[in-house]
Design a protein that fits this description.
Length: 426
């Protein structure tokens, strides 16, 4: 039988004997929970050495010696972890802890441990700990099932909890619902109201309880749209009603997503607001097509620009001449409709007309496809292929590099290909 407790470790001393893989897993969690960690081991992993160098733990670079747990010079430890790869040493640590009536977790022998470390995880403000008779694999599997259920809303995270208040600006990623961040999914599962954009991973909405209000804030290019003022007003109104609002967008809210404007509006109205970063299509699109944004010896800089207004327009703040001179990779969002003027501007300012270009449409989604060319030919290629938004334009030698490495993929998903060296790309 096991009696479960939640230990509050803030400011309490913990001893860890051993500096290998087990210690590397457990020490960061103890530090995060506020424990004062003493580590005894002749050698430690690079991660633990870095924590010691930063002053996050005390490292005694030697082997365990009797008295380390409860001797006159030892701190009054509340918990001990015996985590060496020598059973005899672990047994000695555990025996000394037992004599001193200090709980000891023995990594190599669960049956000889006076305490077990549960498989733990956090989702939706809930900490889950699972002890499966000391079986770590089974405990981890059960933990993952519960945490995943809380994160994706399968388990109702809103039931029996104090409801969140305010607005969360959640970046939903480039399109594939699996690419939303864990934190973003957790907050979405707790939403009372979701204000959603057209490019957000809308399939996630089907997992939400039926009483969640969905507000369609889609902005269709050259078509109907909800004004930014109306979007701000809806978020503020629902939040003032005491409901938790998630503003779900595609990509990242703060990269051409007006997240800054929405955060400012909420702050001005006295509504609490948090931001959850998302995976931007500016980097996800090239990656999903097998194009590296940077490549050693090819491109050391990346420029992400918006072309919602064309080069030469008085409203444009993009330095197209500077981009032409820079020579690095240029990622253009909202540029499909203006690909002609973009190519002309770069060439007129000195970029070679032979510069490789790729356009990735519907990145990470089943309809993903890639059209390639050069600054001289890409406009006609895009028109011939009927490319439409959403799409990301990638300009630079990295496109040529991907082609030479045989990893440029033009279909619906990035697959394993053969490299020029004959090795498989995994």
């Amino acid at each position: 039988m096991t009696y479960l407790l939640g230990l509050r470790m803030q400011g309490r001393d913990v001893l860890v004997v051993g500096g290998g893989r087990v210690a590397q897993r457990r020490v960061p969690v103890l530090i995060e929970d506020g424990a004062r960690v003493t580590l005894i081991s002749p050698e430690v992993s690079a991660v633990l050495e870095d924590l010691a160098s930063a002053g996050h733990l005390t490292w005694h670079r030697r082997a365990y010696a009797p008295g380390d747990v409860a001797g006159p010079d030892a701190p009054a430890y509340w918990l001990v972890h015996a985590a060496t790869d020598e059973p005899g040493v672990n047994a000695a640590v555990a025996e000394e802890a037992e004599d001193a009536r200090v709980w000891c977790v023995r990594a190599d022998d669960r049956n000889a441990s006076s305490a077990w470390t549960p498989a733990s995880g956090t989702a939706s403000g809930v900490t889950v700990g699972v002890v499966a008779s000391g079986d770590p694999r089974r405990a981890a599997g059960l933990r993952d099932a519960v945490v995943d259920g809380l994160a994706d809303g399968t388990l109702d995270a809103r039931r029996g909890r104090e409801r969140l208040r305010g607005v969360a600006l959640v970046g939903g990623g480039p399109g594939d619902p699996g690419l939303i961040t864990v934190r973003g999914q957790q907050l979405l599962s707790q939403a009372d109201v979701v204000v959603v954009d057209r490019l957000a991973p809308t399939s996630l909405l089907d997992r939400l309880p039926a009483d969640v209000e969905i507000v369609d804030a889609a902005k269709i290019p050259y078509g109907r749209s909800m004004t930014q003022e109306d979007i701000n007003a809806v978020m503020i109104d629902r939040a003032r009603q005491g409901r938790f609002v998630v503003r779900l967008k595609g990509g990242d809210s703060f990269l051409f997503g007006r997240g800054g404007e929405e955060a400012a509006a909420c702050a001005a109205a006295g509504v609490p607001v948090i931001a959850v970063p998302g995976v931007t299509s500016a980097l996800a699109a090239p990656a999903s097509a097998g194009i590296p944004a940077t490549h050693r010896g090819v491109a050391q800089d990346v420029h992400i620009v918006s072309a919602h207004v064309p080069p030469g327009d008085d409203r444009s703040t993009v330095d197209w001449a500077g981009l032409a001179r820079a020579g690095g990779t240029v990622m253009v969002l909202m540029g499909v409709e203006r690909i002609d003027s973009i190519a002309d501007a770069l060439v007129s300012h000195g970029r070679s007309s032979d510069t490789p270009v790729a356009v990735v449409q519907e990145a990470t989604l089943p309809g993903q496809r890639t059209v390639t060319g050069t600054l001289a030919t890409i406009a006609s290629s895009v028109r011939s292929a009927g490319v439409r938004p959403p799409a990301v334009v990638i300009i630079g030698e990295v496109v040529k590099t991907a082609r030479e490495l045989d990893i440029l993929h033009t279909g619906t998903q990035f697959e394993t290909r053969r490299l020029a060296t004959g090795r498989d790309l995994q």
